[in-house]
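Record 1 of the preview.
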Amino acid sequence: MGDAGCAGFPPPGPGEVLIVHGFTGVLERDGLRERLMACLTPEEEDHRRAFVFPRDRDHFLLAHALKRLVLGRCLGVAPVDLAFRRGEYGKPCIAGDPGAGPGFSLSHSGGAVVLAVALSPLVGVDVEAHDRDVPLPVLASIMADEDVADLAACAPDRRKAFAYWTLREAFAKAVGIGLSLPRNDVCFRLSGSAGPSVGRLAERFGAAGDWQLFQRDLGPGHLLAAAVRSPTPVTWHLVAAEQVLALAFAASDPAR
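->
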């Protein structure tokens, strides 16, 4: 199934993935930075302040405030009261019994921030600024042989290389092993009327058809990819960060 709007961003149900996307420029709105900082725990605020460059502090603030606002709304919990833990390879999840809360994934690059939320814990998202000066051979060095061969069969195409890269990063986040994913454990097909798909997959991750993929441009310079384990097609609900923030703070805004 395709992507759709998601009025009010209700919690994703079976067969749905919520993707919140935005840019750090939104932090320049009056009072918003302070409101989002109030959503962070003291430990997260210490982490944010530790970044040397303002752009990294802004990435962290917007990403983790959105994470808390959206998951808090899904669970009926105040954003600052949510607790998280990390899995064996560092994949974050809601603290408590495994699988008790929705799965989620964060990514940011070049001012863009994205959050994916699904009932399945096996969900991952990635966003990349594809005008970054990353040599194509470096990108190819982490891809499966089939993906490298497809890139080599055409003229150098930076966006296509980033299309493979973002899909791989989203899948690696979904399975929770990140950079530890062996490069030939998964390959992808970019073409097809239904969008990208898994072409070949190591047996430990299930069947290729058990995975649903999504990809789209975010403006002229960024590419978004998401992956979720689901044996049937899913609906991808895309929601702008501005919509989330407007709803989250409407109750405390006397002008509303």
